[in-house]
Amino acid sequence: MARRIRVARIGAAHGIRGEVKLWSFTEDPLAVTSYGPLETEDGARRFEIEAARPAKDHLVARLKGVADRNAAETLRNTDLFVPRDRLPPIAEADTYYHADLVDLAAVGEDGTTLGTITAIHNFGAGDLIEIAPAAGGEPLLLPFTDATVLSIDLKAGRVVVVPPAEIEAKEED
Q1: Residue 169 — very low, low, confident or very high, per pLDDT cuts 50/70/90?
Q2: What pLDDT was estimated at residue 171?
Q3: What is the three-class DSSP state of 149?
Q4: Which domains does the chain have, with CATH numbers?
Q5: Distance between CA atoms of 149 and 11, rounded to whole angstroms?
């Protein structure tokens, strides 16, 4: 099955005619309307966005087949996905979809395997790269900056990472 990328989450019902709050996870929130039918992670349910408009910090969307508030409420907190191949290509150098980095090998400058990238997070202060160490133990959360992430090679399936000095010192103890 093609890798699925979460692009939105259905929130609370909006009004009485079946509209929902839609939290888009795309750079341009309205881009979520151009990816075709959205699906649940398991692909069991499909949703077509008939109309969407921006609101304060979300979209208000009308989904095909959702005609009243009760039907809309049953969809609350449903995550919506698209197959990775439906996302548009990126033309800019050194720009990546976070999903393309997950499962890549994280290696040091000398080629030593540090672990595997399990996620990219952003809690409001910039992106963090999460690495599951090859030796086991707690995951590493490192700033996703040019100083920490030296290079990304999607074809080779690896990211060259330089952990901050304080993390390297802990590993040596």
Answers
A1: very low
A2: 53
A3: strand
A4: 4-85 (2.40.30.60), 98-172 (2.30.30.240)
A5: 35
